[in-house]
Amino acid sequence: MSAVTRSVVGPLELLLHQSRYEFRAFRRNRRALVFSLLLPVLFLVVFAGVFGNGTVALGGTRVTVATYYVPGLMALAVVSSSLVNLTTSVVAERDLGVLKRRRATPVAPWVLMGARALTSVRISLLAAALLVAVGRVVYGAYVPGDALIGVAVTVMVGSASLSALGYALSTWLTMDSVQPVLQVVVLPLYFVSGVFVPQDRLPSWLRLAAEVFPIERIAGPLHHAFDPAVTGAGVSAVDLGVLAAWAAVAGAIAVRRFTWLPRAT
Amino acid sequence: MPTKVAPNPPTTVLDRDEVISVRSLRRTYGTVEAVRGIDLSVRRGEIFAFLGPNGAGKTTTVEILVGLQARTSGEVTVLGVDPAVGGPSWRARLGIVTQESQPDPGLTVSDCLELYAGYYPHPRDVQETLALVGLTARRNRLGEHLSGGERRRLDVALALIGDPELVFLDEPTTGFDPAARRAAWDMFAGLRELGKTVFLTTHYMEEAERLADRIAVIREGRIVAMGTPDALGGRDAMEARISVPLPPGVTVDDLPGDLRLAVRARRDGRVVLGVRDVRACLEVLVGWAAERGDDLTGLEVTRPSLEDVYIELIGHPQGGQQR
Fold first, then answer.
1. Per-residue confidence band for B181, with pLDDT thresholds at 50, 70 and 90
2. Domain boundaries, position B276
3. Cα distance from A262 to chain B (closest Cα, Å)?
C-alpha cells in the first residue's frame, strides 16, 4: 500500500476506502479468521470423515455427504462472517470509543455502516468460495455450475440482511454479552435449518418455524441450488424477499436505537 | 473575577476570531443536570483549558461542542456553526482526542492515519504527521500493541490528520506517568505553533497552568471562575506571603510598625507577613535588617499557587460539597 496521503472524494469511494481497511483488520484478526473461514471447512472435514461415503437426501436426490454439507456450511459461514463477526466488532468498537472517534469525522454514518456490511459480504463470499473449492477438490462434491451466480446472490443478500440484523442486535449487547447471546440465537437455528442435520429428520412444525428466520432463508435456497436434480438460477425471490424484510425491520430498529458513543459509563 | 464577554446574542456576533461561543448551555439527563448554564468564548489561536473534577460536566460539554450529543437548551456556535446541525464540511475543520478512546483494532499506526486521512477533504501528510507526534518508528506496529503514551500520540495524530482549525483534547493525559505527561505537554504546546485553537479539558491543575492561555473552572455543571492562569479566581489580587526568619532574641514587636500590622502567622522563629505590595514591604524589611546587621538568610516570598485557588474554587474535590 502506498503511503501517499490522499483525499477520498465521493461517498461510494469512501465506502470502498473504509471497507478496504476493515478487510485488512479482518485478515489480522485470528478469531474472526478461524470462525468465518476455518471453522466451516473444519466442519466439512469432520462431517465427511464421520459419515464417510454414505449418502444423504437433499431435496428428492441422494447426494454424497460432502455435497450435502457444502451449502449448509456455507450458510453457517455467512452467519459467522456477517451476524457474529459484525456484531462482535461493532459492539467492541463502540465500547472502545472507536466509533465515537469516527463519528466526529466528516464521514457520513451511513457510509460507515454500509462499509461494514460490505466487508461482511466480502468475507462471506470468500468463505463460500473456500467451501466450494475444498468440497470440490478434496471430496469431489457436486458444484452447480449454472447456479453459482444465484448462489453468490443468496450469499450476498443474506450477508447484507444479517449485517442489518447485527446492527440492530448490537444495540442491546455489550462486549460481555455479545458472544453468549449470539450463540444462543444462532445454534438452534443452525439445527432447524439443516446446517448440521438433514431436515427430513425434523418434525414438520419445526421446519415451518425455521422458515420464519433468515438462516433458513439462506440455507434453504443454497441447499436447493446444490441439489443435482435441480436446474435453473439457484435463487428464490421469496427467500430474497423475506431476507429483505428482515433487513428492513432490523434497519429501522438500528436507525432508532443505534448509538455511536460507548454505552453505560 | 471572571472576564465576562459582552452579552451579545450569538446570532449577531460576527467576530471572526471567536471560534467557540457558548451561552446558557444546559444538558440534563432525566433529573440529572450535567451542565447547568455555561457561558464561554474561545478565541482563535488560544489554548483554552476547561478544568474541573471528574463528573463536573467537562466531557458532556465537549461532546455537545463537537456535535456528538444534543443539548437541552442554550446557544452554541463552533466555527460559526451550530454543532447540532453541523455537517461534514464543518466536522472537517475539527479534530478531537476523545477521552480513553482505544486504537482501531487490527490496524497499524500507518493504516489508521491513511484510513482517517481519507475522511477529510484536505488531509495533512501521513509521514509528516507521524513525525510530528513522534511515532515514525512505530508506524508498522498495531495500535493495540502501543503503550499508553504512544496510543495517545496516535489519538493526537488522528485528530490532526484532517488539518483542523480547532482541536479538542478531552482529558488527554489521564492515567499517564509523569514522564509521559511531560512529553504529551510538549506535543500539545506544539499545536500552538501550528496555529491551532485548542480546547483542553483536564482535572490536572498543573496541566491547565502549564498549557493554557485561559482557564475556566467547572464544578457541578457551572463555571465558577474564568481567567488567565495568573489571575484565575482573583489570584493576582491575593496577598503574597513573605516568611521572615527572626534572629535569636528578636520578637515581632521589634519589627517596624507597618510590618507588625501585616503579620499573619508566627512559628519556629519566623513570622509570616501577608502583603499586596511585595517590593514596598521588602524595602522596609531590607532597611530594618541593614540597621541591625542581619542578612535575612532564609527569607521566602511566595504567592498563592494555582492549586490553592483551585481547591478553594471546587471545594471538596470528590463530594462536590460547598465548604
1. confident
2. 239-303
3. 9
